[in-house]
């Protein structure tokens, strides 16, 4: 046997099934299934026709927000202003329907998407141009956007009766058993997932999150890609704001308050590494479904709201610890492999 043969790098072959089971999304999906089955066993009404529809509706807004947040986290950033963006767009939606009767629903959607994208672009510019950590920037814009909404809305609220019946029907009517707005959320997950997997600019987001400096060396336009992630995140928050106005009975100055932490939690619990570079939008969507289902399940089991929040906190800590342990194990395997091949 030659030296070259002895020193040839060894490759481990894994079956497709083994690779599938190692995916980050699998434990989250398994936890979701167990949660649903246990809750159903304790309360059979949990999976009634209306109960299943409510579960899908409750998860819809969070799924869209989690997908956008995941794109930002992939780049080793975070956006804490999404709840405020949603609130502004939701109130804009109510204002358009109240002040411009007969306005076409597609125009309202376009206005909401445009405002969300604009607010996301402001976040992206501040992060990429000022070179200030996104956590600090978006914490500031969270309060700025919320302040603008408070000043604009004041004590005004818009209710379900202020919007066209066709608009409200988006959260009522179903296709093949799925609410229309839930199908929109699924479409968002599929489209963004295809973009991240198939487009070079999408794959660049992972590279940036893994090593920003190396990405610059390899010619990736880091600032432009990060800017794109923030704009898309804002656009999706705008879409969520419009759908929020269709889903819920009222919108006002406090709409969306506190949602930002739930959104980050959904992405992290869904397997998106908080330090960037890995995860998937499908996982973020499953994480969103898990968190909203936990709330519904604990409510169905008449568990105190405090414990609902505690469970979410435990899930976040567990997800971060699992990600950290996986990173350490991967680094250890890499070192052992390099030592063996020397």
UniProtKB/TrEMBL annotation:
Membrane-crossing segments per the record: 26-43, 55-74, 80-100, 107-132, 176-197, 226-246, 258-275, 282-300, 306-326
GO molecular function per UniProt: transmembrane transporter activity
InterPro entries, alphabetized: ABC_transp_permease
Record Pfam families: BPD_transp_2
Main location: membrane
Keywords tagged on the record: Cell inner membrane, Cell membrane, Membrane, Transmembrane, Transmembrane helix, Transport
Topology within the bilayer: Multi-pass membrane protein
Localization: Cell membrane
A GO cellular-component term linked to this record: plasma membrane
Subunit structure: The complex is composed of two ATP-binding proteins (LsrA), two transmembrane proteins (LsrC and LsrD) and a solute-binding protein (LsrB).
Function: Part of the ABC transporter complex LsrABCD involved in autoinducer 2 (AI-2) import. Probably responsible for the translocation of the substrate across the membrane.
This protein's name: Autoinducer 2 import system permease protein LsrC
């Amino acid at each position: 046997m030659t030296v070259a043969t002895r020193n040839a790098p060894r490759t481990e072959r894994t079956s497709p099934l083994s690779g599938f089971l190692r995916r980050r999304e699998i434990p989250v999906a398994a936890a979701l299934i167990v949660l649903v089955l246990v809750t159903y066993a304790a309360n059979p009404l949990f999976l009634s026709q209306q109960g299943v529809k409510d579960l899908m509706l409750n998860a819809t807004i969070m799924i869209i927000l989690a997908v956008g947040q995941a794109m930002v986290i992939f780049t080793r950033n975070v956006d804490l202003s999404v709840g405020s963006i949603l609130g502004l767009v939701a109130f804009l939606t109510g204002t358009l329907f109240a002040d411009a009767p007969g306005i076409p629903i597609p125009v309202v959607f376009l206005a909401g998407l445009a405002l969300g994208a604009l607010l996301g672009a402001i976040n992206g510019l501040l992060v990429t141009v000022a070179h200030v950590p996104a956590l600090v920037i978006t914490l500031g814009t969270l309060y700025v956007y919320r302040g603008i909404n408070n000043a604009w809305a004041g004590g005004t609220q818009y209710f379900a009766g202020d919007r066209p019946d066709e608009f409200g029907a988006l959260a009522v009517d179903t296709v093949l058993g799925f609410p229309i707005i839930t199908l929109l959320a699924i479409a968002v997950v599929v489209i963004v997932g295809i973009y991240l997997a198939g487009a070079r600019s999408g794959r660049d987001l992972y590279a940036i999150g893994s090593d920003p400096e190396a990405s610059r060396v390899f010619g990736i336009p880091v600032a432009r890609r990060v800017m794109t992630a923030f704009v898309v995140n804002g656009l999706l928050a705008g879409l969520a704001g419009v759908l929020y106005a269709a889903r819920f009975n009222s919108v006002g100055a406090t709409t969306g308050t506190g949602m930002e932490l739930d959104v980050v939690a959904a992405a992290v619990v869904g397997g998106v590494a908080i330090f960037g570079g890995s995860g998937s939008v499908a996982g973020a969507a499953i994480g969103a479904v898990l968190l909203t289902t936990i709330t519904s399940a604990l409510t169905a089991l008449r568990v105190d709201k405090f414990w609902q929040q505690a469970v979410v906190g435990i899930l976040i800590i567990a997800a971060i610890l699992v990600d950290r342990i996986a990173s350490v194990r991967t680094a250890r395997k890499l070192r052992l492999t390099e030592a063996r091949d020397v």
